[in-house]
Amino acid sequence: MPVTMPVTLKVNGKDRPLSLDPRTTLLDALREHLHLSGTKKGCDHGQCGACTVLVNGQRINSCLSLALQHDGDAITTIEGLGTPDKLHPMQAAFVRHDGYQCGYCTPGQICSAVAVLDEIRAGVPSHVQADLMARPQASNIEMRERMSGNICRCGAYSNIADAMADVAGAKA
Ligand code: FES
Ligand code: FES
């Protein structure tokens, strides 16, 4: 009989107690145990970014992290960012700018994109934030570099960058 250990993940605002094999990744806990299949498994080795989720507001590859390491952590998946009736601004921008084709990478791209804009803002003094976000070339280079861990086999990169620039501009 496999050994299991208790862990409580706070997923999309709700406590989700689980009893897991200690080897279970956060990705498998979300998909296989909590049935939140929005988070995708691509490579399962930290190479593609399809499994990106937010942990306490920061993005991680959930395939590289054990669920037991996240007891009490706030996990946000694509299902927690917005709803079909009330999309998150980044989700709405991806729709507006056609930021996907097959859609397999999209949940990870959107979670990453939300975190990237926060990362850029956090690293820039507040008095120049609006200026940075308003300068498409500077912010585009920074955003593209920070999104380089999210692979899109369909090549929707330029539309994804447009969607992010749109959100960045709207918030600036
Ligand atoms: Fe996690 Fe590819 S599935 S990085
Ligand atoms: Fe198909 Fe990105 S939209 S892999």
TrEMBL record:
Signal peptide: none
GO cellular component, one term: periplasmic space
Keyword Manganese assigned: no
Xref: Pfam families: Fer2, Fer2_2
Molecular function, one GO term: 2 iron, 2 sulfur cluster binding
Keywords assigned: 2Fe-2S, Iron, Iron-sulfur, Metal-binding, Oxidoreductase
Domain 2Fe-2S ferredoxin-type: 5-81
Family annotation (Gene3D superfamilies): 3.10.20.30, [2Fe-2S]-binding domain (1.10.150.120)
PANTHER family (alphabetical): ALDEHYDE OXIDOREDUCTASE IRON-SULFUR-BINDING SUBUNIT PAOA, OXIDOREDUCTASE, IRON-SULPHUR BINDING SUBUNIT-RELATED-RELATED
Name assigned to this protein: Xanthine dehydrogenase YagT iron-sulfur-binding subunit
